[in-house]
Amino acid sequence: MRLVEIEDLHVSFSQHDGLVQAVRGVSFGLDSGESLGIVGESGSGKSVTCAALLRLLREPPAKITAKTLSLSGHSVLGISNRAISTLRGRVAAMVFQDPMTSLDPVFTIGHQIAETILAHRKVTKREALAQAVELLRRVEIKNPGAVTNYYPHQLSGGMLQRAMIAMALSCEPDVLIADEPTTALDVTIQAQILQLIKDIQAETGMGLIMITHDLGVIAETVDRVVVMYGGKVMETGPVEAIFSAPLHPYTRALLNSVPGQTAGKQRLVEIAGSSPNPSHPPAGCPFHPRCPLAVAECRQTAPPLETKAAGRQAACIRVAAEMVAA
Amino acid sequence: MTAAALELRQVTKRFGDQAAVDRVDLVVPHNKVVALVGESGSGKTTTGLLALRLLAANGGQILLDGQDLTPLSQKALKPFRRQMQVVFQDSYASLDPMMTLGEIIAEPLGIHGLFTAAERRDQARRWLEKVGLDAGYATRYPHELSGGQRQRVAVARALILGPSVLVADEPTSALDVSVKAQIVNLLQDLQADMGLSILFISHDLSVVRSLADEVVVMLRGRVVERAPTDMIFAGARHPYTRALLDAVPVLDPKARRRRSFMSAEEISARTPRYRAAELETQPLVDTAEPQLVALAGSHFVEAIVTG
């Protein structure tokens, strides 16, 4: 089943000094049981894309348009707040980077998980609390009964993120969207949380969208990858292909710039310049000002996302030309 | 033997009953980059602040080019501050939003009463160019810059006094991947040009691998391992160092594997054990408490030593 369908999504924000074009024509989908990574740097539009999918953006200032924007076959375009809130949690649930700001400091962990359950299911408060304990056990919290009585400040960052995942799982969503879930965590805790997310996905068969700036997290967790830059999709494909033979010059540059890939003190391969300003994106391909392969046409027309090989798409006119040349 | 650029000897800092930094020994040789790595709560940032004397230690000595800074008053320290500068992670918080970039970069010169105002302005413009920005940025403000550009300004401000030691506390952690490489390269270039010695505090082992000559690993306020960078990555001896390295995501989807995770107790239980005869230096024997011992090749590890 198609869990997520996004076709030609545009998201902009009106500000006093003009329009910020955060997402400019993004399309991708997610099938059940599939895991998809969205990788990009700050301002690439990766988080805004998923926030638009769950209609988490305040409209206005946000303006969302798309040919298709749907969750498990339900269109989320132009539907009421009430209709979207029944889809959130049950069809798609989200885990954010900073659990401390997602949780309410004055209520216990158990209360907050139970509240989510009560909002979606006809159960008593006692049953909801019992389910909260079970959920905490499922995210491998050692003494789940005691932890239900804790307040957020009493838990470590890793434990809080486990609690957030428990909350996201409480309504057995078809798809879990994790937005930089491990970015604020120590590396050893990150490894544990990523393992937990993978295990739960394998166990439940839910779909997973992992949003991250970290190529290592992508390599470790997902089947398929969407690479975003400047509000657009640069490349999509199976994770192994993306890492072993990236098509788009941006993907290649990004992979090359990751430090510590080989032993020894050395200069890194940098990408000159900086990411495009979303208020004034460059004409043509958003990567052209930093691209070593850019030609005149790249500066004028934004290349469409085209199939370049089986299961692989890239938005670059230079990819095909270069492959023919090679 | 010439003195190290920066040396910490048995430095301790307690907050209440807790030792945040516990008898730490650290050496940054001249013209080298030493990385101080560890997770949150390891004491690495506190160690950096102690080295800079931005925080007073409860015990131990801090030596800058052989000179013991510990007994000096803040006033007596001032000339030494020129030789030791710092760059922090969050350039948004560390650059005054009301000052132009030129004023920010030139400010340390003013504080130390160096040059005329016009000369200071010229120097600031020269430093903007040295860190890869246009001299015209001198009249702009921090909010007009990207994160990477702000970090360049922070580097210029730190280096304008020509220090011999730079403490860099997670200078690349808030930056995007493509910009991170730019700042790492900038630090490398300036280090080579100026003969800088850098204490590079970071949780990012990938950056450390490309930048550092030597790595010091901290865990709960203690140094548990210290060795040349290649030796840490190829032959770490302490179970915590191994756990840290093992947790780093691998950039190859084909190399995915299930990891096993150790609790703090399991790590303690696996503290390496050596017999005194196996070691390079003669340690205390049969103490129950682990101690930092010397192995071959400037490799130090916290271990329990038996006779």
Automatic annotation (TrEMBL), chain A:
Keywords recorded for this protein, A-Z: ATP-binding, Cell membrane, Membrane, Nucleotide-binding, Transport
Pfam families: ABC_tran (PF00005), oligo_HPY (PF08352)
GO molecular function, one term: ATP binding
Predominant location category: membrane
Protein origin, superkingdom: Bacteria
Domain ABC transporter: 4-255
Subcellular location: Cell inner membrane
GO cellular component, one term: plasma membrane
GO BP annotation list: peptide transport; transmembrane transport
Classification via InterPro entries: AAA+_ATPase (IPR003593), ABC_Ni/Peptide_Import (IPR050388), ABC_transporter-like_ATP-bd (IPR003439), ABC_transporter-like_CS (IPR017871), Oligopep_ABC_C (IPR013563), P-loop_NTPase (IPR027417)
Membrane-topology annotation of the record: Peripheral membrane protein
Family to which the UniProt record says this protein belongs: Belongs to the ABC transporter superfamily.
PANTHER family to which the protein is assigned, alphabetical: DIPEPTIDE TRANSPORT ATP-BINDING PROTEIN DPPD, OLIGOPEPTIDE TRANSPORT ATP-BINDING PROTEIN APPD
Protein name: ABC transporter ATP-binding protein
Species whose genome carries this gene: Devosia nanyangense
UniProtKB/TrEMBL annotation, chain B:
Membrane topology label: Peripheral membrane protein
GO molecular function: ATP binding; ATP hydrolysis activity
UniProt domain ABC transporter: residue ranges: 6-245
Domain of life: Bacteria
Compartment(s) where it occurs, according to its Swiss-Prot or TrEMBL record: Cell inner membrane
GO biological process, one term: transmembrane transport
Gene3D superfamilies: P-loop containing nucleotide triphosphate hydrolases
PROSITE patterns, per database record: ABC_TRANSPORTER_1 (PS00211), ABC_TRANSPORTER_2 (PS50893)
Pfam families: ABC_tran, oligo_HPY
InterPro entries named among the record's database cross-references: AAA+_ATPase, ABC_transp_ATP-bind, ABC_transporter-like_ATP-bd, ABC_transporter-like_CS, Oligopep_ABC_C, P-loop_NTPase
Database matches in SMART domains: AAA
Keywords on record: ATP-binding, Nucleotide-binding, Transport
Entry coiled-coil feature ranges: none
Main location class: membrane
GO-annotated cellular components: plasma membrane
Family under the similarity heading: Belongs to the ABC transporter superfamily.
Protein name as annotated: ABC transporter ATP-binding protein
The organism of origin for this protein: Devosia nanyangense
Lineage: Bacteria, Pseudomonadati, Pseudomonadota, Alphaproteobacteria, Hyphomicrobiales
